[in-house]
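In this section we walk through a basic example: taking a raw amino acid sequence and producing a predicted 3D structure, encoded as discrete structure tokens. The instruction is simple. Fold the sequence below.
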Amino acid sequence: MRSVSASNELLLSDTSVPDLFIIQYMQDLSKDAVGLYLWLLMNGMKEFSKEEADKFGLISPKDVEEALVSLVSALLISRRDDGTYVFEDIKKREVDTYIKNRSQNTDHLEGTALNSDEKARNVLADSINKTFYQGNMPYLFYRLIDNCLYDYAFDSAVVYSLFKEGRDRRIHLKVNPMYKMAEEWNAKGYKKPEDLEKYFRAKNDIEKMTAVMGRLSRRRMNGVDIDYINKWVGEYGATPDLAEYAFKVNEWRGNITFKHVDDKLKEWYAAGVSSIDAAQVYEAERKTENQNRDRKIRGKNGYFRTGDEAGIKIDLKEEPDKKPKKKEDPVEQDDILDLFGSDDEDD
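The resulting token sequence is shown next.
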């Protein structure tokens, strides 16, 4: 273990960190797990115990335990039966996996077919490397290209579009999100350029709908809002115009939420409404139906009936008669004067 405690010692050494760790693993780890991993590498510890990790004093013992669990889950270290930990050789594991996959993918190819296939693959990989990675594409993305070509049977143009989409989303430097997007495209059948037309059309609708809903709601869209918009485009096939109309038919509510818009679009989707013209006809017919239903409470001649006419009887409790108070006779002026003595009498 390398000592770094001397106060008069200049720390000018370097620590070698595999690029594979930075590209594939680091982005999915917590800051505590990354810090502990780097500190262990700096001290040249190939095997260690939890107690030794605690002595670094970087984080609390509880956080050290959680960081070790994360590193074990990420297959960066392994735990022995005696409770100690050892580093995994991630570079050797990556090379072994690549060789195994390549041998399985090329066993059926022979002679010129292999050469022709490899040339096309190399041209594609070189183009992606120069366009999106400035000539420094990490090795894992070469493997992603091979997975797309040989495992998913993507057309070369689709593979190129995958990396372009990754750059547009700003995930082209992140291995796991790129692999996940490739899996999604494969699951949705985006293997040929013509298959991608549906994807890019939906992407364009999502971008426009996001702008429209932001303008109508007068606020910035958050993650929940984007999930709703993706649902409207992906599941209901709604267009930006249709979503805007669904918002406006809810204006009577005052405080409109995306749940209200979702309910309306879901209602239209169940009724087979897929355009704004059809939605307007649907809403007009629904308004007429509501008006006809309201008229059922009226009489045949179009006037409201009284309760008696409608056969409704209301029992009213009889209130006891309140007899008016008897008005008292006013006291005559002479009677009042008698109380104080009459002024008419002579002294």
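Looking at the output, two observations stand out. The chain has three domains: 19-88, 92-191, 197-294. DSSP finds 15 helices and three strands in the chain. In the next section we compare this with other chains.
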